[in-house]
Specification:
The structure is a homodimer of 172-residue chains. The first copy, chain A, has helices at residues 26-30, 32-46, 60-72, 127-138, and strands at residues 10-13, 21-24, 53-57, 75-79, 89-95, 100-106, 115-123, 142-151, 166-171. With 172 residues, chain A is of the alpha/beta class. Chain A has a single domain, classed as Rossmann fold (3-Layer(aba) Sandwich). In chain A, β1 and β2 (21-24) form a beta hairpin. In chain A, α2 (32-46) packs across α3. The first copy, chain A, is globular and about 40 Å long.
Chain lengths: 172, 172
Amino acid sequence: MTLDLRSKIRDVPDFPKKGILFKDVMPLIGDAAYFAESIRQLAEWSRPREPDLVLGAEARGFIFGAALAYDLGAGFIAARKPGKLPWETVEATYALEYGTDSLEVHRDSIAAGARVIVLDDVLATGGTAKAKCELVERLGGIVAGALFVIELTFLNGREQLAGHDVHSLIQY
Amino acid sequence: MTLDLRSKIRDVPDFPKKGILFKDVMPLIGDAAYFAESIRQLAEWSRPREPDLVLGAEARGFIFGAALAYDLGAGFIAARKPGKLPWETVEATYALEYGTDSLEVHRDSIAAGARVIVLDDVLATGGTAKAKCELVERLGGIVAGALFVIELTFLNGREQLAGHDVHSLIQY
């Protein structure tokens, strides 16, 4: 019987601010069987896309992304907030509700032609995912797929990812 | 032939501030074969200690910790900076060069009696590792081992972890 991943997602009201119902993945990650099942499902979708690398954004994207990369026999690329990566970086900016934010990857992290699965825990408005896809393509890589554990479908994040192969394990 | 993990650690001078020679693990993580070998070595040490959980601190600790947890068939617990975890937390404070900082875990993340491998990428002064061990024990868990990819032996971090089983893959 397949484990119901959704049963391990905890609703936290008013986080990070009032009026937002936060989807907390920590109970899923902390349960060995459910965590393994989530990675199995992520890998099942990823494997036919023949990725060389998995790219995840800090911090929850590191958790699923690193385990997925390990399962696939791929390398892992960390996308971080500006100033966190020690070496030479390239940066992509994305819109927030108010203002903008950025993500960086190391300039040498993606070889030309490398196939990259871009992964994050949640697909919301799609801004950060789009920025990650831009970083992959700017370095000459190929976005082999954009993959999420949770998709908040009412925010229409897929529209930002037009032209990419998009998949999520759980939809709200 | 065993891959030499050390060959994939990049020295970055003057990061995060002047005079510090930063050990950058990103080239190791980004190389599929070396990343897999690092997780294999971490798992080899961990497995006989029969962990139920792996606890890692943000952000690089999430990368090695999640892949290790997945390999071991364990759950993963995220230790985060204050305010980042959405639900009820417990907190441990540790000393910095100037002032203090804290780490939190969710209050329900570790069942009483659970065996926990406390993992981080670098053992430096040992302050954060000690705080993580305290969090495990405060929640009734058992520290099954304190594990690191890199150990900066000249900083004597092991002294902070007296009474615990400590291991690192690479020493400087």
